Inverse folding.
């Protein structure tokens, strides 16, 4: 199986680009035609382009936002409520969506459905896009024959979640900007201002107050070991994020967040 990049036109004439995994170019063309996409260009995806593309996907570049999932849930509710065949509805969504990551995921979901998987199993192949709650709701809807109701509940939940996120972002925007500006000011003072006053402070000898000594020591540490500090900070953040992705790490991290004053109650 190889990766192929394609460019094509939907039935409405919209330009669609993406990537598919298949054995040959003919298989890619046939699959696109089945989806109602007229292929314009199909070419192999080089190994370097694939590695860069996969790396960008892993770090979250282009990942669908909550608004994209909300729109997708509303469209799926309309499809399941109206009785439209699921494959036909998903083909239409794959053509209409403007997010490349979501479009590729829907094309893979279509392939899974055509190969005999159910919708929940097909969606679960993309956990970076569809969260566990989303997948669980879909599985329950399939098992009980109420898939339309499941997508309706997902619409309500995602709309409420988006509203809460907007409120939190609005409340934290000003404090965040203030903290960033303070950090920049401290960085400029530490790197550029304090070193210019260092000779004057050394003349004073032991008469320097301890807060000034701390500032001078911090400035010397940053100037001498700045690269090591940056690398150490990046590695620490990467290690913490990797740990948080484990079951034990996520449990402890969520428990810590719930204990934060004010913010913990909002998260709960």
């Amino acid at each position: 199986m190889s990766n192929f990049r394609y460019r094509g036109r939907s039935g409405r004439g919209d330009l669609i680009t993406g990537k598919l995994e298949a054995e040959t170019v003919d298989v890619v063309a046939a699959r696109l035609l089945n989806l109602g996409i007229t292929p314009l260009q199909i070419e192999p995806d080089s190994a370097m382009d694939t590695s860069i593309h996969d790396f960008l996907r892993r770090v979250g570049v282009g990942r669908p936002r909550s608004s994209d999932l909300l729109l997708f849930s509303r469209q799926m509710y309309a499809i399941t409520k109206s009785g439209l065949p699921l494959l036909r509805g998903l083909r239409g969504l794959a053509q209409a969506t403007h997010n490349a990551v979501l479009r590729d995921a829907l094309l893979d979901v279509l392939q899974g459905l055509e190969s005999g998987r159910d919708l929940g199993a097909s969606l679960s192949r993309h956990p970076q896009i569809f969260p566990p709650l989303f997948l669980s709701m879909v599985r329950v809807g399939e098992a009980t024959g109420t898939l339309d109701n499941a997508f309706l509940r997902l619409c309500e939940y995602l709309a409420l979640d988006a509203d809460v996120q907007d409120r939190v972002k609005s409340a934290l925007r000003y404090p965040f900007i203030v903290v960033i500006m303070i950090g920049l000011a401290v960085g400029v003072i530490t790197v550029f201002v304090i070193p210019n006053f260092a000779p004057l402070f050394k003349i004073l000898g032991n008469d320097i107050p301890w807060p000034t000594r701390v500032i001078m020591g911090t400035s010397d540490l940053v100037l001498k070991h700045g690269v090591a500090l940056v690398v150490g900070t990046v590695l620490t953040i990467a290690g913490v994020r990797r740990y948080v992705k484990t079951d034990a790490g996520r449990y402890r991290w969520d428990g810590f967040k719930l204990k934060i004053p004010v913010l913990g109650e909002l998260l709960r």
